[in-house]
Specification:
There is one protein chain. By secondary structure, the chain is an all-alpha fold. It has two domains: 123 residues, Orthogonal Bundle (Peroxidase, domain 1); 111 residues, Peroxidase, domain 2, CATH 1.10.420.10. Strands 1-2 form a two-stranded antiparallel ribbon. Bound molecules: protoporphyrin IX containing FE and 2-acetamido-2-deoxy-beta-D-glucopyranose (2 copies).
Length: 302
Amino acid sequence: MTYSNRLFCFHLCNMVALAIIASSHATLSPTFYDKVCPQALPTIKKMVQAAVQKERRMGASLLRLHFHDCFVHGCDASILLDEAPGIRTEKTTAPNNNSVRGYEVIDQIKSKVDQVCRGPVVSCADIVTVAARDSVVALGGPTWKVPLGRRDSTDAYPDETSDLPGPASSLSTLLANFKKQGLDARDLVALSGGHTIGLARCIFARPEQSDCSRGGQTLGPLDSTPTHFDTVYFKSLVKNKGFLPSDQALFNGSSTDSLVKIYSLNPGAFSADFARSMIKMGNIRPLTGTHGQIRVNCGKRN
Ligand code: HEM
Ligand SMILES: *[C@@H]1O[C@H](CO)[C@@H](O)[C@H](O)[C@H]1NC(C)=O
Ligand SMILES: *[C@@H]1O[C@H](CO)[C@@H](O)[C@H](O)[C@H]1NC(C)=O
């Protein structure tokens, strides 16, 4: 090898190495699937719309599925892995068992997307993230561009489901819990606004909250308009009608009261902050580049 060849290789090889390092740390991009499968996002949207039309609650369930994915070891679809040799599932842990819903909808979307894309090019983690956005839109909420390019984990992390906040949490506990994920007080209040849709078990309900106090029912709406993405959740907090203790903790004479008040009076401010915080939550510890895999079946590692 001549000196100039070696010099050439030195530079070229460094450039290749840098490119590989850069791609394994690649940031997410909203245009990630534009070339490889332009039909991916429209397909997810159509299937989410159909699922929400069939059962309005499914929109809430898909939003929560994304939250419970991202807070446990990042947005890597680890929540979707079933129990198998070498894998302890997250699905039966305390926060998820008989509570998280929508797994079948994600499986149906995945098979349709793989069909239109002629192969498994879209990760389960990205499908869950886009389905959460499309669910919010289907129930009348804001839209936003979803950064994409997440890959799927090869393991599940049941022990890390303790990172999910509990419904009896105080404000200081909630703030610390979100801080651990890189999320601040504004993210906490905005994202808690996800409780503008969906249902919860009455065993979690505060006594001040009327929808469960008649007795007999097992589930109650998290706000009085559980199929509409609106600001009624925040209006209820201001009236001391929060469903969960962790909801009312956001308006209970402390630092987050003012933000709750602002969102209760200003749908535009809530929409803008919710969209911004959803992007932040969706960016928690993604697997990118050569890390992880694109699962063929969301419930199993390849
Ligand atoms: C701030 C801390 C949070 C706590 C303590 C919390 C807790 C809970 C609990 C206990 C339930 C009811 C589960 C059941 O009864 O089985 C629930 C439901 C729900 N949560 Fe949260 N959550 C929090 C944050 C979030 C976030 C950040 C989102 C999304 C942005 C979210 C979206 C939902 C939705 C949509 C439902 C209703 C699901 C359905 O109807 O299937 N939550 N949450
Ligand atoms: C999950 O719920 C089922 C009932 O559907 C119950 O039989 C099982 O013991 C629960 N699993 C755990 C780990 O608590
Ligand atoms: C509200 O604050 C009071 C006084 O600090 C506290 O005792 C109570 O548990 C709080 N309630 C909620 C729902 O956070």
